[in-house]
Amino acid sequence: MIRHSRTDEGLSLIELIVVVLLLGILGSGIALIFTNSWRAQNEVTTTTQATNRGQLIGQTIERAVRNGVCLDVPDANTLRVQTVYPAGDSRRYQKFWIASGNAYMARGATTSLPSPGPWAERVVLVAGSSQFFKLSPDKKTVTYAISLQTDAAPVTISGSVSLRDNSGGPTPCWS
After folding, report:
1. pLDDT in tens, 61-110
2. Buried-most residue among 12, 57, 65, 85 (CB within 10 A)?
3. Spatial distance between the Cα atoms of 64 and 79, rounded to a whole number of angstroms
4. Which residues 6+ apart lie within 8 Å of 75 measured at CB?
5. Cα separation of 15 and 21, whole Å?
6. 128 contacts 47 by C-beta, under 8 angstroms
7. Every domain of the chain and the residues it spans
8. Kind of pairing, strands 123-124 and 78-83?
9. Euclidean distance between CA atoms 69 and 90, whole angstroms
10. Paired residues of 82 in beta bridges
11. Is 91 exposed, middle or buried (0-12, 13-18, 19+ CB in 10 A)?
12. Are the beta carbons of 30 and 136 closer than 8 angstroms?
């Protein structure tokens, strides 16, 4: 008669269930780590993209104003700039505005500017602010503040820029 020892019999059902449970817990932990990493990466990506768009908006506004001869802010959502570029140049008139949560920019040789697609999306007022653009009383400095929504915290871009040429521009500015 052959006798089998306990070590020759293999895994018991209870041992197999314990291993499956441990592997399930370990797998769930790894899946959670991957999911959280993916979410964090997505938040970083949207924040970086919003920061880049915001910096582009700020730089373009500041370049236009510095090259401007006069500024016009007809409402809290619109900035119009007549620049030093000669008549007929496509950069002569530049307009920046916010509408329906999008930022727009147009430029042209005349005040009849094309209607472009959105330049940036998910644009909102900075918390505590009631306007995107504010013109100084002497009409030579504009202050701007926008906030771009992201999957994480909003990205705020703001600044104040003055005309480089303070000699005074044409009247009316936008003609």
Report:
1. 999 999 999 899 999 899 999 998 888 888 899 999 888 888 888 888 88
2. 65
3. 10
4. none
5. 10
6. no
7. 13-18+21-162
8. unpaired
9. 15
10. 70, 93
11. middle
12. no
74: its two tokens: 């007809």
H/E element, 106:
strand 102-108
- What are the tokens at 85? 């570029």
Length of the chain: 175
Q: What burial class does residue 117 get, using C-beta atoms within 10 Å of its C-beta: 0-12 exposed, 13-18 middle, 19+ buried? A: exposed
Contact 125, 112 (CB under 8 A): no
Global confidence as pTM: 0.77
- The end-to-end CA distance of the chain, in Å, is 112
Q: How many CB atoms lie within 10 A of CB 13?
A: 7
Nearest Cα to 19, choosing from 31, 11, 28?
11
The Cα 106–Cα 114 span in angstroms is: 6
